[in-house]
Amino acid sequence: MRAKILLTAMALAGGAVIAVAQTNHTGHGDSMDHSAHGKDRPATAGVLSEPGQGAFAALSEVVKVLESDPETDWANVDLTGLRAHLVDMDRLVSDAIVSETDLPDGISAIATGDAATIATLRRMVPAHTAQLARDDRWTVQATQTDDGVELRVTSDDPSVAARIRGLGFFGLMASQDHHRAHHLLMARGRDAHGH
């Protein structure tokens, strides 16, 4: 059964692989196809848009933006710092152990994990709490515990309280769509969250 699935996937991907091979036969990412007929044609078919792993994709996107901006101050660029933050994001989502308690007006979430995860939580949750606090429909508090952090988010509005409970810890950590701007500031060597 596994062989059939693999063969089907290979057959479906085959056209894209052949197209990529034709547009990149030199191995140097040429944007022109110098194939059999000796004519130069723009390569459009089979161009991949996803560079693979999520953190690598984020770094790749940031590099593209920095390289296209003539105002980029390369002396201050800090992609190593951005990479560390992306590792933190991955660790928070993948490794944090979270216990959520529904409150009448929101939630209390206790987050913990191994030593590296606890360090990540102590960096990320308070910083993101500041972002969450920009929404005046709820009250947000992050408290360091002996083995992690507690995130408490509440609201006097029952519909907002229901939203808080629906989002839960991970939804709250992913809300307030500021991440892309934050990552670009970090890459430029600026302390976007003040942490």
What does the model show?
The chain is of the alpha+beta class and 195 residues long. Helix content is 50%, strand content 16%. It has 6 helices and 6 strands. It has helices spanning 2-23, 54-68, 79-95, 115-132, 158-174, 179-187, and strands spanning 32-33, 41-42, 97-103, 106-112, 139-145, 148-154. The chain has a 4-stranded antiparallel beta sheet, covered by helices on one side. Strands 1-2 form a two-stranded antiparallel sheet. It is elongated and about 50 Å long. The model is unreliable at 1-38 (pLDDT under 50).
List the helices and strands and how they pair.
Elements: H1 2-23, E1 32-33, E2 41-42, H2 54-68, H3 79-95, E3 97-103, E4 106-112, H4 115-132, E5 139-145, E6 148-154, H5 158-174, H6 179-187
Antiparallel strand pairs: 1-2, 3-4, 4-6, 5-6
